Protein backbone atom coordinates (compact mmCIF):
# COMPACT_ATOMS: atom_id res chain seq x y z
CA UNK A 1 0.00 0.00 0.00
CA UNK A 2 1.12 3.55 -0.71
CA UNK A 3 1.09 6.04 2.15
CA UNK A 4 1.86 9.74 2.26
CA UNK A 5 3.81 10.53 5.41
CA UNK A 6 5.76 13.37 6.98
CA UNK A 7 9.50 13.27 6.38
CA UNK A 8 9.82 13.20 10.18
CA UNK A 9 8.23 9.73 10.07
CA UNK A 10 10.75 8.32 7.61
CA UNK A 11 13.05 5.58 8.85
CA UNK A 12 15.78 3.40 7.40
CA UNK A 13 14.17 0.42 5.67
CA UNK A 14 11.22 2.33 4.18
CA UNK A 15 10.71 2.27 0.42
CA UNK A 16 10.63 5.88 -0.80
CA UNK A 17 8.13 5.92 -3.66
CA UNK A 18 7.91 9.63 -4.49
CA UNK A 19 8.76 13.04 -3.09
CA UNK A 20 5.97 15.60 -2.69
CA UNK A 21 6.62 19.16 -3.83
CA UNK A 22 8.60 20.80 -6.59
CA UNK A 23 11.16 18.60 -8.30
CA UNK A 24 13.64 21.44 -7.93
CA UNK A 25 13.47 20.98 -4.16
CA UNK A 26 14.07 17.23 -4.25
CA UNK A 27 17.31 16.17 -2.57
CA UNK A 28 17.77 13.26 -5.01
CA UNK A 29 17.16 13.25 -8.76
CA UNK A 30 15.25 9.98 -8.53
CA UNK A 31 12.99 8.10 -6.13
CA UNK A 32 11.76 4.52 -5.93
CA UNK A 33 14.37 3.02 -3.59
CA UNK A 34 14.68 1.57 -0.09
CA UNK A 35 16.39 3.93 2.35
CA UNK A 36 19.44 2.10 3.69
CA UNK A 37 21.76 4.92 4.70
CA UNK A 38 21.00 7.27 7.64
CA UNK A 39 22.82 9.99 5.67
CA UNK A 40 20.02 9.88 3.08
CA UNK A 41 17.50 10.51 5.85
CA UNK A 42 19.51 13.52 7.01
CA UNK A 43 19.63 14.84 3.43
CA UNK A 44 15.86 14.57 3.09
CA UNK A 45 15.23 16.25 6.43
CA UNK A 46 17.57 19.10 5.50
CA UNK A 47 15.65 19.75 2.26
CA UNK A 48 12.45 21.77 1.90
CA UNK A 49 10.46 18.60 1.19
CA UNK A 50 7.93 18.02 3.98
CA UNK A 51 6.03 14.94 2.79
CA UNK A 52 6.79 11.78 0.80
CA UNK A 53 5.01 8.67 -0.45
CA UNK A 54 6.23 5.29 0.80
CA UNK A 55 5.35 1.82 -0.49
CA UNK A 56 4.71 -0.49 2.46
CA UNK A 57 4.70 -3.54 0.18
CA UNK A 58 8.37 -2.94 -0.67
CA UNK A 59 9.67 -1.61 2.64
CA UNK A 60 8.86 -0.94 6.27
CA UNK A 61 5.49 0.46 7.36
CA UNK A 62 4.76 3.14 9.94
CA UNK A 63 4.85 2.18 13.58
CA UNK A 64 1.45 1.21 14.99
CA UNK A 65 1.13 4.46 16.89
CA UNK A 66 1.82 6.62 13.80
CA UNK A 67 -0.81 7.91 11.38
CA UNK A 68 -0.22 8.60 7.68
CA UNK A 69 -1.19 11.91 6.10
CA UNK A 70 -3.16 9.94 3.50
CA UNK A 71 -3.26 6.54 1.81
CA UNK A 72 -3.70 5.32 -1.76
CA UNK A 73 -4.65 1.85 -2.92
CA UNK A 74 -2.77 2.14 -6.23
CA UNK A 75 0.24 3.85 -7.77
CA UNK A 76 -2.12 5.54 -10.24
CA UNK A 77 -4.08 7.12 -7.39
CA UNK A 78 -0.90 8.42 -5.75
CA UNK A 79 0.45 9.69 -9.08
CA UNK A 80 -2.80 11.56 -9.75
CA UNK A 81 -2.46 13.37 -6.43
CA UNK A 82 1.19 14.17 -7.12
CA UNK A 83 0.40 15.47 -10.58
CA UNK A 84 -2.42 17.65 -9.23
CA UNK A 85 -0.11 19.17 -6.64
CA UNK A 86 2.63 19.61 -9.24
CA UNK A 87 0.31 21.52 -11.57
CA UNK A 88 -0.53 23.91 -8.74
CA UNK A 89 3.10 24.92 -8.18
CA UNK A 90 4.29 24.94 -11.80
CA UNK A 91 4.46 28.22 -13.70
CA UNK A 92 4.80 28.52 -17.46
CA UNK A 93 3.86 32.17 -17.99
CA UNK A 94 6.27 33.85 -20.45
CA UNK A 95 9.09 35.89 -18.91
CA UNK A 96 12.20 37.65 -20.18
CA UNK A 97 15.54 35.88 -20.48
CA UNK A 98 16.89 37.89 -17.55
CA UNK A 99 13.98 36.76 -15.36
CA UNK A 100 14.31 33.10 -16.35
CA UNK A 101 18.09 32.87 -16.00
CA UNK A 102 17.99 32.47 -12.21
CA UNK A 103 15.56 29.53 -12.41
CA UNK A 104 17.40 28.13 -15.43
CA UNK A 105 20.63 28.12 -13.41
CA UNK A 106 18.96 26.00 -10.70
CA UNK A 107 17.59 23.60 -13.32
CA UNK A 108 21.00 23.48 -14.98
CA UNK A 109 22.76 22.46 -11.77
CA UNK A 110 20.12 19.94 -10.74
CA UNK A 111 20.12 18.49 -14.25
CA UNK A 112 23.88 18.08 -14.18
CA UNK A 113 23.66 15.97 -11.04
CA UNK A 114 20.80 13.89 -12.48
CA UNK A 115 22.44 13.18 -15.83
CA UNK A 116 25.81 12.47 -14.21
CA UNK A 117 24.11 9.93 -11.94
CA UNK A 118 22.23 8.42 -14.88
CA UNK A 119 25.43 8.00 -16.93
CA UNK A 120 27.32 6.51 -13.98
CA UNK A 121 24.56 3.95 -13.38
CA UNK A 122 24.54 3.04 -17.07
CA UNK A 123 28.33 2.74 -17.01
CA UNK A 124 28.06 0.28 -14.13
CA UNK A 125 25.64 -1.85 -16.12
CA UNK A 126 22.52 -0.97 -14.13
CA UNK A 127 19.15 -1.04 -15.91
CA UNK A 128 18.06 2.32 -17.33
CA UNK A 129 14.75 3.69 -16.03
CA UNK A 130 13.55 6.47 -18.31
CA UNK A 131 10.53 7.07 -16.09
CA UNK A 132 12.71 8.89 -13.57
CA UNK A 133 13.70 11.37 -16.28
CA UNK A 134 10.09 12.58 -16.66
CA UNK A 135 10.23 15.18 -13.86
CA UNK A 136 13.56 16.50 -15.15
CA UNK A 137 12.20 16.86 -18.68
CA UNK A 138 9.09 18.63 -17.37
CA UNK A 139 11.21 21.19 -15.50
CA UNK A 140 13.28 21.80 -18.63
CA UNK A 141 10.11 22.00 -20.72
CA UNK A 142 8.57 24.54 -18.34
CA UNK A 143 11.70 26.67 -18.53
CA UNK A 144 11.58 26.59 -22.33
CA UNK A 145 7.89 27.57 -22.17
CA UNK A 146 8.67 30.57 -19.99
CA UNK A 147 11.60 31.60 -22.17
CA UNK A 148 13.11 29.41 -24.93
CA UNK A 149 16.52 31.06 -24.84
CA UNK A 150 17.52 31.17 -21.18
CA UNK A 151 18.33 27.53 -20.45
CA UNK A 152 19.69 26.90 -23.97
CA UNK A 153 22.08 29.87 -23.76
CA UNK A 154 23.15 28.90 -20.25
CA UNK A 155 23.82 25.31 -21.36
CA UNK A 156 26.04 26.62 -24.17
CA UNK A 157 28.33 28.13 -21.54
CA UNK A 158 28.94 24.77 -19.87
CA UNK A 159 32.41 23.81 -18.75
CA UNK A 160 34.27 21.71 -21.31
CA UNK A 161 34.70 18.99 -18.67
CA UNK A 162 30.92 18.76 -18.28
CA UNK A 163 30.24 18.57 -22.00
CA UNK A 164 29.15 14.92 -22.18
CA UNK A 165 26.53 15.36 -19.46
CA UNK A 166 25.28 18.90 -20.08
CA UNK A 167 25.13 18.28 -23.82
CA UNK A 168 22.21 15.95 -23.05
CA UNK A 169 20.44 18.70 -21.11
CA UNK A 170 21.00 21.24 -23.88
CA UNK A 171 19.71 18.87 -26.57
CA UNK A 172 16.68 18.10 -24.40
CA UNK A 173 15.83 21.82 -24.15
CA UNK A 174 16.34 22.39 -27.88
CA UNK A 175 14.25 19.32 -28.77
CA UNK A 176 11.40 20.73 -26.67
CA UNK A 177 11.65 24.16 -28.32
CA UNK A 178 11.87 22.62 -31.79
CA UNK A 179 8.92 20.28 -31.16
CA UNK A 180 6.79 23.26 -30.15
CA UNK A 181 7.93 25.20 -33.22
CA UNK A 182 6.80 22.25 -35.35
CA UNK A 183 3.39 22.41 -33.62
CA UNK A 184 3.62 18.90 -32.18
CA UNK A 185 1.23 17.95 -29.38
CA UNK A 186 2.36 18.10 -25.75
CA UNK A 187 2.87 14.35 -25.45
CA UNK A 188 5.19 14.43 -28.47
CA UNK A 189 6.94 17.49 -27.00
CA UNK A 190 7.58 15.58 -23.78
CA UNK A 191 8.85 12.51 -25.64
CA UNK A 192 11.10 14.72 -27.77
CA UNK A 193 12.58 16.08 -24.54
CA UNK A 194 13.15 12.59 -23.12
CA UNK A 195 14.74 11.53 -26.42
CA UNK A 196 17.08 14.54 -26.27
CA UNK A 197 18.05 13.74 -22.70
CA UNK A 198 18.76 10.09 -23.54
CA UNK A 199 20.17 10.37 -27.06
CA UNK A 200 23.85 10.08 -26.04
CA UNK A 201 23.45 7.50 -23.28
CA UNK A 202 25.70 5.14 -25.24
CA UNK A 203 28.66 7.40 -24.46
CA UNK A 204 28.50 5.96 -20.94
CA UNK A 205 29.97 2.80 -22.51
CA UNK A 206 32.82 4.63 -24.23
CA UNK A 207 36.39 4.49 -22.81
CA UNK A 208 36.92 7.66 -20.75
CA UNK A 209 40.35 8.26 -22.30
CA UNK A 210 38.70 8.38 -25.74
CA UNK A 211 35.60 10.31 -24.67
CA UNK A 212 37.64 13.04 -22.96
CA UNK A 213 40.63 13.09 -25.30
CA UNK A 214 41.81 16.71 -25.65
CA UNK A 215 42.83 16.29 -29.29
CA UNK A 216 41.75 14.83 -32.59
CA UNK A 217 40.66 11.19 -32.47
CA UNK A 218 42.50 8.55 -34.45
CA UNK A 219 40.53 6.51 -37.00
CA UNK A 220 40.41 3.62 -34.53
CA UNK A 221 39.17 5.87 -31.69
CA UNK A 222 36.52 7.44 -33.92
CA UNK A 223 35.35 3.96 -34.90
CA UNK A 224 34.79 3.27 -31.20
CA UNK A 225 32.86 6.52 -30.69
CA UNK A 226 30.67 5.70 -33.70
CA UNK A 227 29.30 2.71 -31.78
CA UNK A 228 27.65 4.89 -29.12
CA UNK A 229 24.20 5.09 -30.81
CA UNK A 230 23.88 1.30 -30.89
CA UNK A 231 25.30 0.93 -27.38
CA UNK A 232 22.82 3.49 -26.06
CA UNK A 233 19.95 1.85 -27.94
CA UNK A 234 20.82 -1.47 -26.28
CA UNK A 235 20.98 0.15 -22.83
CA UNK A 236 17.57 1.79 -23.25
CA UNK A 237 16.00 -1.49 -24.29
CA UNK A 238 16.51 -2.73 -20.72
CA UNK A 239 13.62 -0.45 -19.74
CA UNK A 240 10.37 -2.08 -20.96
CA UNK A 241 8.50 1.21 -20.66
CA UNK A 242 10.80 3.22 -22.95
CA UNK A 243 8.95 4.74 -25.88
CA UNK A 244 9.96 3.62 -29.41
CA UNK A 245 10.44 7.28 -30.32
CA UNK A 246 13.17 7.63 -27.68
CA UNK A 247 14.86 4.46 -28.93
CA UNK A 248 14.71 5.75 -32.51
CA UNK A 249 16.37 9.09 -31.73
CA UNK A 250 19.08 7.38 -29.69
CA UNK A 251 19.92 5.03 -32.57
CA UNK A 252 19.57 7.41 -35.52
CA UNK A 253 20.56 10.95 -34.42
CA UNK A 254 23.77 10.70 -36.48
CA UNK A 255 22.03 9.76 -39.72
CA UNK A 256 22.18 12.31 -42.59
CA UNK A 257 19.73 13.07 -45.37
CA UNK A 258 22.19 12.01 -48.08
CA UNK A 259 22.84 8.61 -46.47
CA UNK A 260 26.39 9.38 -45.32
CA UNK A 261 25.56 9.16 -41.61
CA UNK A 262 25.72 6.26 -39.19
CA UNK A 263 25.06 3.62 -37.92
CA UNK A 264 22.66 2.46 -40.65
CA UNK A 265 23.35 4.92 -43.48
CA UNK A 266 19.67 5.85 -43.72
CA UNK A 267 18.65 8.61 -46.08
CA UNK A 268 15.74 10.99 -46.64
CA UNK A 269 12.34 9.53 -45.79
CA UNK A 270 13.98 6.53 -44.09
CA UNK A 271 14.88 8.81 -41.17
CA UNK A 272 12.05 9.67 -38.76
CA UNK A 273 11.11 13.27 -38.07
CA UNK A 274 12.29 12.96 -34.49
CA UNK A 275 15.68 11.55 -35.49
CA UNK A 276 16.01 14.47 -37.93
CA UNK A 277 15.24 16.83 -35.05
CA UNK A 278 17.81 15.08 -32.88
CA UNK A 279 20.45 15.44 -35.59
CA UNK A 280 20.02 19.22 -35.81
CA UNK A 281 19.96 19.80 -32.05
CA UNK A 282 22.92 17.49 -31.44
CA UNK A 283 25.16 19.16 -34.02
CA UNK A 284 24.25 22.72 -33.04
CA UNK A 285 25.11 22.19 -29.38
CA UNK A 286 28.29 20.32 -30.31
CA UNK A 287 29.69 23.08 -32.50
CA UNK A 288 28.67 25.99 -30.23
CA UNK A 289 30.05 24.43 -27.02
CA UNK A 290 33.57 24.67 -25.67
CA UNK A 291 35.28 21.29 -25.90
CA UNK A 292 38.61 20.07 -24.50
CA UNK A 293 40.15 20.48 -27.95
CA UNK A 294 38.38 23.60 -29.33
CA UNK A 295 36.36 26.69 -28.45
CA UNK A 296 32.72 26.81 -29.43
CA UNK A 297 31.62 28.66 -32.54
CA UNK A 298 29.46 31.77 -32.42
CA UNK A 299 25.73 30.78 -32.43
CA UNK A 300 24.74 32.87 -35.47
CA UNK A 301 27.80 31.76 -37.44
CA UNK A 302 27.04 28.15 -36.52
CA UNK A 303 23.56 28.40 -38.04
CA UNK A 304 25.04 29.93 -41.19
CA UNK A 305 27.53 27.09 -41.55
CA UNK A 306 24.92 24.42 -40.85
CA UNK A 307 22.71 25.88 -43.58
CA UNK A 308 25.56 25.31 -46.05
CA UNK A 309 25.95 21.59 -45.22
CA UNK A 310 23.98 20.23 -48.14
CA UNK A 311 22.62 16.75 -47.55
CA UNK A 312 23.12 16.83 -43.80
CA UNK A 313 19.80 18.09 -42.36
CA UNK A 314 16.16 17.97 -43.37
CA UNK A 315 15.45 21.50 -44.73
CA UNK A 316 12.01 21.86 -43.10
CA UNK A 317 13.28 20.69 -39.71
CA UNK A 318 16.31 22.98 -39.96
CA UNK A 319 14.16 25.99 -40.87
CA UNK A 320 11.94 25.33 -37.86
CA UNK A 321 15.05 25.01 -35.70
CA UNK A 322 16.31 28.42 -36.84
CA UNK A 323 12.91 29.94 -36.04
CA UNK A 324 12.98 28.38 -32.57
CA UNK A 325 16.36 29.99 -31.81
CA UNK A 326 16.26 33.09 -34.00
CA UNK A 327 18.60 33.96 -36.88
CA UNK A 328 20.78 35.59 -34.25
CA UNK A 329 20.52 33.19 -31.28
CA UNK A 330 21.15 34.37 -27.74
CA UNK A 331 24.90 34.66 -27.26
CA UNK A 332 25.65 35.83 -30.82
CA UNK A 333 28.12 38.69 -31.24
CA UNK A 334 26.80 41.28 -33.71
CA UNK A 335 27.69 44.69 -35.11
CA UNK A 336 24.90 47.25 -35.33
CA UNK A 337 24.47 49.88 -38.03
CA UNK A 338 25.73 52.49 -35.55
CA UNK A 339 29.09 50.68 -35.42
CA UNK A 340 28.53 49.37 -31.91
CA UNK A 341 29.17 45.75 -31.02
CA UNK A 342 26.87 43.81 -28.78
CA UNK A 343 25.81 40.35 -27.67
CA UNK A 344 22.26 39.10 -28.30
CA UNK A 345 20.57 38.56 -24.93
CA UNK A 346 16.90 37.97 -25.84
CA UNK A 347 14.45 37.42 -28.68
CA UNK A 348 11.52 39.81 -29.12
CA UNK A 349 9.12 37.50 -30.94
CA UNK A 350 8.33 40.22 -33.47
CA UNK A 351 11.00 39.37 -36.04
CA UNK A 352 13.92 36.97 -36.34
CA UNK A 353 16.14 39.96 -37.21
CA UNK A 354 15.22 42.23 -34.30
CA UNK A 355 16.47 40.69 -31.03
CA UNK A 356 17.49 42.52 -27.87
CA UNK A 357 21.22 43.32 -27.93
CA UNK A 358 23.52 44.38 -25.10
CA UNK A 359 25.95 46.82 -26.72
CA UNK A 360 29.30 47.40 -25.03
CA UNK A 361 31.92 48.42 -27.64
CA UNK A 362 32.26 51.23 -30.20
CA UNK A 363 34.13 50.29 -33.37
CA UNK A 364 34.27 53.95 -34.36
CA UNK A 365 36.06 54.95 -31.17
CA UNK A 366 37.71 51.52 -30.82
CA UNK A 367 36.89 51.43 -27.12
CA UNK A 368 34.54 49.89 -24.56
CA UNK A 369 31.39 51.83 -23.76
CA UNK A 370 28.88 51.62 -20.92
CA UNK A 371 26.76 48.48 -21.54
CA UNK A 372 23.25 49.25 -22.74
CA UNK A 373 20.32 47.09 -23.82
CA UNK A 374 18.91 47.90 -27.25
CA UNK A 375 15.57 46.39 -28.29
CA UNK A 376 15.85 46.38 -32.09
CA UNK A 377 12.12 45.73 -32.47
CA UNK A 378 11.56 49.24 -31.07
CA UNK A 379 14.28 51.03 -33.04
CA UNK A 380 11.93 51.82 -35.96
CA UNK A 381 14.76 51.30 -38.42
CA UNK A 382 17.19 53.69 -36.76
CA UNK A 383 19.29 50.79 -35.58
CA UNK A 384 19.64 47.28 -37.01
CA UNK A 385 22.10 44.43 -37.20
CA UNK A 386 24.69 45.11 -39.89
CA UNK A 387 26.70 41.90 -39.58
CA UNK A 388 27.70 38.95 -37.46
CA UNK A 389 31.05 39.25 -35.75
CA UNK A 390 33.58 36.53 -34.98
CA UNK A 391 34.30 36.48 -31.21
CA UNK A 392 37.74 35.00 -31.91
CA UNK A 393 38.65 38.11 -33.90
CA UNK A 394 37.84 40.45 -31.03
CA UNK A 395 38.81 38.18 -28.15
CA UNK A 396 36.55 39.79 -25.58
CA UNK A 397 37.20 37.92 -22.32
CA UNK A 398 33.82 38.69 -20.74
CA UNK A 399 31.18 37.76 -23.33
CA UNK A 400 29.60 35.27 -20.95
CA UNK A 401 29.34 37.90 -18.21
CA UNK A 402 27.85 40.40 -20.65
CA UNK A 403 25.27 37.82 -21.70
CA UNK A 404 24.15 37.12 -18.14
CA UNK A 405 24.65 40.49 -16.39
CA UNK A 406 21.56 42.63 -15.66
CA UNK A 407 21.34 46.11 -17.19
CA UNK A 408 18.69 48.55 -16.03
CA UNK A 409 17.82 50.47 -19.18
CA UNK A 410 16.48 49.25 -22.50
CA UNK A 411 16.43 51.60 -25.46
CA UNK A 412 15.27 51.36 -29.01
CA UNK A 413 17.57 53.81 -30.71
CA UNK A 414 21.20 54.51 -31.53
CA UNK A 415 23.74 56.86 -30.08
Automatic annotation (TrEMBL):
GO terms for molecular function: phosphoric diester hydrolase activity. InterPro entries: DUF3391, HD/PDEase_dom, HD_domain, HD_GYP_dom, HDIG_dom. It holds the Pfam family DUF3391. Residues 140-337 form the HD-GYP domain. Residues 164-287 form the HD domain. PANTHER family: CYCLIC DI-GMP PHOSPHODIESTERASE PA4108 (PTHR43155:SF2), CYCLIC DI-GMP PHOSPHODIESTERASE PA4108-RELATED (PTHR43155). NCBIfam families: HDIG. This is Phosphodiesterase.
